[in-house]
Specification:
2 copies of one chain form a homodimer. Chain A is an alpha+beta fold and 366 residues long. The first copy, chain A, contains 10 helices and 14 strands. Chain A has 3 domains: 66 residues, no CATH class; 118 residues, 60s Ribosomal Protein L30, Chain: A, CATH 3.30.1330.10; 166 residues, Alpha-Beta Complex (Phosphoribosyl-aminoimidazole Synthetase, Chain A, domain 2), CATH 3.90.650. A 7-stranded mixed sheet of chain A has the order 9-11-8-12-10-13-14. Chains A, B: This is Hydrogenase expression/formation protein HypE.
């Protein structure tokens, strides 16, 4: 009887949502596939269609902002940011970090680039039966250390264990709550022609590190993950440059994916100077051997900022004055034409379109 | 160089935490195992030792309350609750619900029994390559419907996909933020002798439903999950009975595990009248065939409340006046002796100790 009473009102609402998803599917031709592929989790086009065609259609509400990393939450006069990420990186331990500090820094960074002061984290673990406890202890200790560095507290958590063969050692979800002290919000639609595009440091280190750490490739390179908490660097930038339009940490899909989202959301052209994009030689070398473009490779301690063009030099100097931003660079400008596209000016005077990531060349990097 | 700079301060702090965990391990003899077992995720003793010996030691801070479901967050005058749960139920669809409404209701209920008004949810999906999109659509629609019923908004999310064989179709994490409008907080340490113990309805329906839905047992029973949002029922109770000490939703580990936590935390005896515990005949029959005690079987739409003994009848009437509480019952009393134990008075006049769940008779019920 209880079940009947509870189940009765559900189908109507569920059916409405399913109908809405189906209408969106026909209208926008999204999520054509019948089955989930690795590309749906890669942060590129397939992820975007999945999010827009399914989750946004289902959950739509004024505060659900699919292009922003966190949700702004009014709370009787104060504003909060809530964000979440699950971490499924493989291997769990890699040069420069592990899944633990990644899970803290990643969520801290989502809060920071939303303009919020990161404060509280939740942590949900999905563990595979047989996972070594010492490894879990290492991961948890790494999380605690990262939380301390980032000035956040892990205030609640959950642990599930699944049977052998139903996970891959350890998955972690962190949700984060941050406080919005500043009056501004930072969104892609604020970007306009004449703005400058900055990155806070050399790109692609995390993604290349993970690929090489898997040991499946016969490539050796002196690289380590750039995983780091960006809240101080972001605060330094915001204190210097009130004309910051948007910040985004360059994780899955890399810098190229962020710039494409900016171009589309603001209806502008993003023109990137290839020679100005900071990439360390070891990362460049590995990318060349692997046949991938560093612009698509994930960072876990770098962000892209679009700032008022008049403030570009001051913003750059501010970033470079902080240890985590000393490799910052001005990599491009926002133009009016062609709207919605990212163009790369190459060293040889050519120009090519940098599209959103398609498929999944780098599964489970975070 | 970046990696060196970032990694350098970490080992010290990490080592401190590892040392702390090791000291706790020697002192309290917790987490003896070298490897994670299914019991670590079952909500019983092994989970408790894992949480206390590892996570609490690592993350310890004033707001980390391992026995409470949510964390109370002061926010410049207002108070918030943040909570999280990952859902790994198998099968994903079962009579009375699915992983989607379970993931919403479970987190809503954690907020509600903390005394908070549930407001915002995050949703993190870990999907297995090859998972059918229509199934995902059903799950998401079910979440949306459940969110609407519970008056919450899913305001942010994340999607990861792992390779075939590295998950089991779909895992979901939800984190929830609730607003604490009431001045009270509800904790086990407030419980005292003379208080009354209530359950909001018949127990064990969710757990039995899941076990039977797996189809591995040759048992048929007319049962459905009791998954439901409890925020209104909780509000009804709190409006009536200002002497509510503690509320807990009876999920993994069941009513028995909650009562043991209360007995230990408050240093009291919990005396339960077996004949007063509401269990539907179909659940009772299935439990008898399976050789398990309904007191250990999970509910997803029931909670335990400990209230001032003088308010017991009023509280019971308030619960029974709400559709989700019409099967509520007064099942026991708090005594002074023996402290830390849960005693069950049987129909035959005997008394036996009801211990915390050991091992994991029911893996992946939520």
């Amino acid at each position: 009887m209880t079940a009947e009473r509870i189940a009765a009102p559900a189908p109507t609402r569920e059916q409405q949502v399913l109908d809405r998803i189906e209408r969106a599917r026909r209208r926008k031709a999204v999520v054509r596939e019948e089955r989930i592929t690795l590309a749906h989790g890669a942060g590129g086009k397939a992820t975007q269609t999945l999010v827009e065609g399914l989750f946004v259609e289902a959950f739509r509400n004024p505060r659900l902002a699919p292009l922003d990393d966190g949700a702004i939450l009014p709370a009787t006069g104060d504003r909060l940011v809530l964000t979440t990420d699950s971490y499924v990186v493989s291997p769990l331990f890699f040069p420069g970090g592990d899944i633990g500090d990644l899970a803290v820094n990643g969520t801290v960074n989502d809060l920071a680039v939303s303009g919020a002061r990161p404060r509280y984290l939740s942590a949900g673990f999905i563990l595979e039966e047989g996972f070594p406890v010492p490894d879990l202890a290492r991961i948890v200790a790494s999380m605690a250390a990262a939380a301390r560095r980032a000035g956040v507290e892990v205030v609640t958590g959950d642990t599930k264990v699944v049977q052998r063969g139903k996970a891959d050692g350890c998955y972690i979800n962190t949700a984060g709550v941050g406080l919005l002290d500043r009056p501004h919000t930072y969104t892609a639609t604020a970007v306009r022609p004449g703005d400058a595009v900055l990155v806070s440091g050399p790109i692609g280190e995390h993604g290349v590190t993970i690929m090489l750490a898997r040991g499946e490739l016969d490539i050796e390179a002196d690289v380590a993950s750039d995983t780091a908490p960006l809240h101080e660097l972001v605060a330094t930038l915001l204190d210097t440059a009130p004309g910051v339009r948007l910040m985004r940490d360059a994780t899955r899909g890399g810098v190229a994916t962020i710039l494409n989202e900016v171009a589309r959301a603001a209806g502008v052209a993003v023109v990137v100077d290839d020679a100005a994009v900071p990439v360390r030689p070891a990362v460049n070398g590995a990318c060349e051997m692997l046949g991938i473009d560093p612009l698509y490779v994930a960072c876990e301690g770098r962000f892209v900022a679009v700032v008022d063009g008049d403030e570009a030099e001051a913003a750059l100097a501010a970033l470079r004055g902080h240890p985590l931003g000393e490799g910052a660079a001005l990599i491009g400008r926002i133009g009016a034409d062609p709207p919605g596209l990212v163009l790369l000016k190459t060293a040889f005077g050519g120009t090519r379109i940098v599209d959103t990531l398609v498929g999944d060349p780098l599964p489970r990097i975070c």
